[in-house]
Sequence to fold (729 residues):
Amino acid sequence: MTPYPNVCEYKIPVRNFKALIGLAVLVLILTGCSSVVTGESWANLSTDGKYIYAAYKEQVFKIDPNPSASVPSDRRPVLWLKKLTNNPHFYAAPTVSEDGTLYVGSYNRAQSALYALRAENGGVVENWRIPTYADKVVSPATIAGDMVYIGIGDKGVRGYNRKTGLEVKFDGTNYGVWAKPLIIGETLYISSLDHYLYALNPTTLEQKWKVDLGGAAADAPAYDGAGTLYIGTWNSELVAIDISGEAGKITSRYKTKNWVWSSPAYEDGALYFGDLSGTLYALDAKTLAEKWTIPPEAEVPGGIRGRVGIAKNITVVRTVNGQAQTEVIPTMIVYGTEGKKAYAVDADKKPLWTSALVMSDRILSDILIVGNSAVFTTMSEDQLVVALNLSSGQRDWQLRLADAQSVFQPTSQP
Amino acid sequence: MDFLTNPFATALLFFYQLLGNNVILTIIVFTVIIRMLVFPLTWQQLKSSKAMQKIQPEMKEIREKHKGDREKQAAAQMELYKKYGVNPFAGCLPLVVQLPILLGLYGAITIALAASPLQVLDVSHRLLVPGLANLIPLQNRFWIWNLGQPDTTFILPILVVASSWIQQKLITPVNPGADPKDPSVQMSRQMTIMMPLMIGFFSIQFAAGLSIYWIVGNIIGIVQYALLGKVDVRQAFGLKKRETPALATANGVPRLTSETMPKISKTGDVINARPQREKVAPKNGKTAPEIEIVPPRTVTTFDAKPRAKAKPRSK
Fold:
């Protein structure tokens, strides 16, 4: 019997090699058609009232929202931009403490950490021991005195002493915590993806009680200041929880059309929020009775993922019977959608303006009210940060990532 | 592919709920079900492949006969296909139909294992049954793995490569009589090596749950072929059949060797079989003498009686 020849003895004929390459390309293309989502994120913003801080991919940067002679009028100066080491990937918005320290956790599965930078210049905080067990952080940090708390993307919550680095932890959740921890009085509240709202002791992170919301909660609850929390869930509900007693108790629920990702904004006894169907809701905070809803725009449908922005006493110019009239709007609600548009309405559902420019990509971030602008991010790096004038809905300024990166060189790495 | 991916993702979540929120079991059961549903197509493909293999010797003859003349070669091949009722493209059509279904399943598993916020947002737009939203996110943890993330231990990718290679070897064995220089034989061997490696490379990049899907799919493929009696492990892995040793000869006379000599145990039992007698061709017109070998009697106790002597046959 002829033995099997060793395949390695044979050189690959050219046409077979080409066929193999073609097959490899075909497999790559077909694999690309299988809806694999890569590890992208949207940029998230926060403000200390004066400046805007953004975290995007592996970068953290600071923006001055005031016009400057150093940049064109439709841009704003980036005061510093820092690219962080260990290939972090930021989903969380930065949090700035009163003493000027910026904290942001990263999502990178291999080298996640909670970074601490000086808000003034982006410099690394000396002697900050980067916690190595902060895995897949999506939640923004919460700062309370000497402690900083973050939710962990896989499971639980961590608290770190900002001076000593001492860690306390709570691993009682079954899934991750994406929501920002909320401190009210002597209790730390955590919304978890495992459908529960937890109440913890902020010093030891011992559990006080928990309540089943019926669906995953990805955002921190809103508080009305009178003992009630409001949380949206992926079970298409808004839930009201009374926390005035020894344990939390769900008092009412409101059914929405689709997932509620972000918690509502509470203003003057009303709750304003959107869901992933693109519907904007206004509810009475005490009873959760519906005041009004605004359906998504038919031409550009898209969900509302982020928190709405509430602006007070904004002067708008309206055209009534062909005549321009100014009007002061006591409460303006601004929201952005996956349909790439931003909208403004008043508390009585009257539309005020729609963003004049359709954005390059989806608006997934929260709406930040800074001065007379509504600031948000899009999924496009050419319109990474956009500010719309609250009075007119016109674009005040926008920031391209490339502009920020070209102006500032990365400073020394931590 | 959303027309397939979205229903599959929804069905996957339904099974997840049914199977006690167990992701591994869900992936396994769902993969089994889908592969069973496309089995008729797989069977069609297999039949076509076997038919093509059967006519390979005649194809080779045609190639040699009409070497250099492609037109005559093609005409003769067509005649051969007609003669045996074989459609060379019959194996492609089932594959073309299967591929989107399997890609849809692959995409559905990827979507269902959403781990990051952007991935979960994508899931929210794909569920056809809103009531399943309370299952999100799935419990992705299994032993040391997060099934929504690539496997950093490389255990699953290695299993993917191994199972893919074994499946390839079993379902496309090389015909022992095939010419190793035949381009189709070479191509087959290269595919056996390249495809598993490529799939293994992809499995390193993607969520670990997809590796589970690949491994299960490969095992199902092997089992399907085995149940159909189409698996020949020896032929697939080039294992030679065990041959009995030939009798040594001296001057044409069969002679017992140490391998063929009957062996007796301490209790008197015969251990090996009766030695084979090989007929020897006569030399110079003379017939080789035949020796009758009489095995010893089987006894259970030691027998002091002498053995019967071998009697040569009379000529």
About this structure: Chain A touches chain B through 52 residues (CB under 8 Å). The longest strand of chain A covers residues 323-336.
